[in-house]
């Protein structure tokens, strides 16, 4: 666990920041405005080094788990998995870093089980760029129970991009693998030229739980010749029908800079049940898929037009067919980081607004893609968006805030209009 927590509060751009700095002897509060625990807030968490936000999870207890990475606990040598539990007012309950003894990527995902949390991310295992999917189990107080790494072969590299929990306690982890399997090229495997351009494939694996031990039930790989990436993993369950969806992108052709969006569903045996693939005029980078109304889906991607970043949103029905045309969000130069459906009310999106500096951005859209709310938060040089959650009385966003060489995780709670007010 992380010791020596010292709270600080200060005002910037009319926004009250209440931050938690770790192990800083210069930490003082006498000259700062005290934070009184209002219903709507901006708070910061982290240490003297760097912290990066990945997502925020609402737990069954009503608290919030902030997920990211930090190098504040190892002298800055590499990033560790980093979890922070806070109450509904943003007060820290516990925080802890988890070291796989290598660079641990900030793109983490987490799921809650009956007695704690399961986390996946990407772990460098040998100091030479080879990675595996990290798999971490912690209890409800953040104490590490165990951790391990997962991969197909000793020579391959894997990533951990997403994790879901099935009803029987088993989990599915999704990411990429560099292990080029003979299923794509026949019994003789790939030729040399095929191997040179086939850099990554989609990869997903099921781990079954048996008396507190996980064993591999199956593992799958899929991809075209080229660089294929998994960006998100989603589980939905409506009316007893379970759907597992993977969002990714594939190269339009080997070596091409253009990528096609690729969304597919699988059953609990890992076999594909439906596919959506889109070749768009823009080179869209897939970001996230969310459950939409009527058992459908909505996915989000980013693309660049000249010097301006834009967001593409595409609703799909339960069969991965377009339920409406895609729409483009043109709000300055905006990179989307997370999307959630509000059903008939539309969508909420968090992101990063780029200009002379960067700000955390909240966008609310109606079902046709028209902007209802657009608000920015932050006054540091580099403020970047992360995850977003709809609340009964507003929205909750997390992100990353930079102060010189120090970056920290932020949590922002707003009212239903995106305002920092009751």
Provide an overview of this structure.
With 422 residues, the protein is mostly beta strands. Helices cover 1% and strands 56% of the residues. The protein has one helix at residues 192-197, and strands at 5-12, 15-22, 41-46, 51-58, 64-70, 80-86, 92-98, 109-113, 116-124, 131-139, 144-150, 162-165, 171-177, 201-210, 213-222, 229-238, 241-251, 259-266, 272-278, 285-291, 297-305, 308-316, 327-329, 333-341, 347-354, 358-365, 371-377, 383-391, 394-403, 406-415. A 6-stranded mixed β-sheet has the order 1-2-3-30-29-28, with no helix packed on it. It has a 4-stranded antiparallel β-sheet with strand order 4-5-6-7, with no helix packed on it. A 4-stranded antiparallel β-sheet has the order 8-9-10-11, with no helix packed on it. β20 and β21 (297-305) form a beta hairpin. The longest helix has 6 residues, at 192-197. Residues 1-37 have low confidence and may be disordered.
Layout of helices and strands, plus pairs?
Layout (H helix, E strand, L loop, with lengths): L4 E8 L2 E8 L18 E6 L4 E8 L5 E7 L9 E7 L5 E7 L10 E5 L2 E9 L6 E9 L4 E7 L11 E4 L5 E7 L14 H6 L3 E10 L2 E10 L6 E10 L2 E11 L7 E8 L5 E7 L6 E7 L5 E9 L2 E9 L10 E3 L3 E9 L5 E8 L3 E8 L5 E7 L5 E9 L2 E10 L2 E10 L7
Parallel strand pairs: 2-3
Antiparallel strand pairs: 1-2, 3-30, 4-5, 5-6, 6-7, 8-9, 9-10, 10-11, 12-13, 13-14, 14-15, 16-17, 17-18, 18-19, 20-21, 21-22, 22-23, 24-25, 25-26, 26-27, 28-29, 29-30
């Amino acid at each position: 666990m992380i010791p020596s927590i010292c709270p600080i509060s200060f005002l910037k751009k009319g926004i009250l920041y209440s931050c938690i700095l770790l192990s800083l002897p210069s930490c003082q509060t006498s000259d700062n405005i005290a934070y009184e625990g209002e219903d709507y807030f901006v708070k910061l968490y982290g240490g003297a080094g760097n912290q990066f936000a990945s997502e925020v999870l609402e737990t069954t207890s009503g608290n919030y788990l902030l997920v990211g990475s930090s190098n504040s606990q190892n002298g800055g040598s590499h990033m560790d998995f980093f979890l922070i539990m806070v109450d509904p007012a943003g007060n820290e309950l516990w925080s802890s870093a988890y070291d796989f003894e290598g660079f641990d990527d900030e793109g983490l995902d987490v799921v809650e089980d009956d007695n704690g949390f399961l986390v996946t991310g990407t772990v460098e295992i040998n100091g030479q760029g080879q990675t595996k999917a990290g798999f971490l189990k912690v209890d409800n107080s953040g104490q590490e129970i165990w951790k391990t790494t997962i991969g197909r072969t000793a020579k391959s590299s894997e990533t951990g991009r997403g994790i879901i929990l099935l009803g029987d306690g088993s989990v599915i982890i999704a990411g990429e693998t560099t292990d080029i399997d003979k299923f794509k090229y026949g019994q003789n495997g790939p030729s040399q030229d095929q191997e040179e351009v086939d850099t990554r494939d989609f990869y997903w694996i099921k781990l079954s739980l048996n008396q507190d031990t996980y064993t591999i039930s199956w593992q799958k790989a899929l991809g075209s010749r080229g660089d294929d990436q998994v960006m998100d993993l989603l589980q939905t369950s409506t009316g007893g029908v379970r759907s597992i969806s993977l969002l990714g992108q594939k190269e339009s052709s080997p070596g091409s800079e253009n990528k096609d969006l690729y969304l597919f569903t699988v059953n609990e045996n890992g076999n594909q049940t439906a596919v959506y693939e889109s070749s768009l005029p823009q080179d869209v980078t897939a970001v996230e898929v969310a459950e939409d109304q009527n058992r459908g889906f909505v996915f989000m991607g980013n693309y660049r037009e000249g010097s301006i970043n834009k967001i593409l949103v595409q609703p799909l029905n339960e069969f991965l067919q377009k339920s409406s045309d895609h729409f483009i969000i043109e709000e300055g130069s905006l990179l989307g980081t997370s999307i959630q459906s509000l059903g008939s009310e539309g969508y909420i999106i968090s992101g990063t607004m780029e200009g002379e500096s960067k700000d955390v951005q909240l966008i609310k859209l109606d079902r046709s893609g028209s902007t209802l709310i657009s608000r920015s938060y932050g006054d540091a040089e580099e403020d970047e968006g992360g995850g977003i959650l709809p609340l009964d009385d507003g929205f909750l966003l997390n992100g990353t805030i930079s102060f010189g060489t120090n970056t920290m995780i932020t949590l922002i709670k707003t009212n239903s209009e995106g305002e920092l007010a009751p």
